[in-house]
C-alpha cells in the first residue's frame, strides 16, 4: 500500500505540531510557580481554557496539583465538556489524600446543590471511592425533600 503525498504531509504536520506543543509545555513549566498557579487557576475558570489548564496540571508535581483540589472538586460537581478530564486529574492525585479531604469540599456544594451536583459527585465516587463516602451521599440524597435528588439515591444506592 502506497501512502499519498497529502496523507504524508498531514502526518508530518501533526508530528511538527506535537513537537511544538512539547516545547511550549516545557516553557510553561519553566515559569515561576506563582505565575503558573495564577494562569492555571484562571484557566480552570474559563471554559475555553479549562481543557488546557487541566492537561497542564497533570504535568505538575503532586504537591502543586493538590493546590487546585478545591477548584477541581467544584468543577466535578457539574456537567461540562471537561467533566471526564476533571475526574481524570482528581483520580491522578494520591487516593488517601483525596479521600481524607473530599467530603470537606463536597458537602458545602451539596448543601446548596440540586440533583446535578448529587449525580456528578456520585459518579465521581463510583470511580474513585471511597465507598463509605458514596454511601453517605446516598443517605443524604435519600433524605432530601427533592424527588430528583432522591432519584440519585435510587440510582447509586445499594439496597
Task: Explain how this protein is built.
This protein is mostly helical and 159 residues long. It has a domain at 67-156. Helices cover 78% and strands 0% of the residues. The protein contains ten helices and no strands. Helix 2 crosses helix 3 (47-57), helix 5 packs across helix 7 and helix 9 runs antiparallel to helix 10. The radius of gyration is 20 Å and the shape is elongated. It starts with a helix and ends with a helix. The mean pLDDT is 96.
Q: Unreliable segments (pLDDT under 50, ≥5 consecutive)? A: none
**What average pLDDT do the residues reach?**
96
Helix content: over 70%
Total helical elements: 10
Order of helices and strands: HHHHHHHHHH
Gap between N and C termini, in Å? Answer: 57 Å
**What's the story with the biggest beta sheet?**
none
Structural Rg: 20 Å
By secondary-structure content and strand pairing, the structural class works out as mainly alpha
Q: Identify the overall geometry.
A: elongated
Strand content: under 5%
Number of strands: 0
Brief account:
The protein has helices at 5-29, 33-45, 47-57, 62-65, 69-76, 83-91, 95-112, 115-128, 131-142, 147-156.
